[in-house]
Amino acid sequence: QVQLQESGPGLVKPSQTLSLTCTVSGGSITSGSYYWSWIRQPAGKGLEWIGRIYTSGSTNYNPSLKSRVTISVDTSKNQFSLKLSSVTAADTAVYYCARANGFYFDYWGQGTLVTVSS
Amino acid sequence: QSALTQPASVSGSPGQSITISCTGTSSDVGSYNLVSWYQQHPGKAPKLMIYEDTKRPSGVSNRFSGSKSGNTASLTISGLQAEDEADYYCCSYAGSSTWVFGGGTKLTVL
Question: Are B92 and B100 in contact (CB under 8 A)?
Answer without folding.
Answer: yes
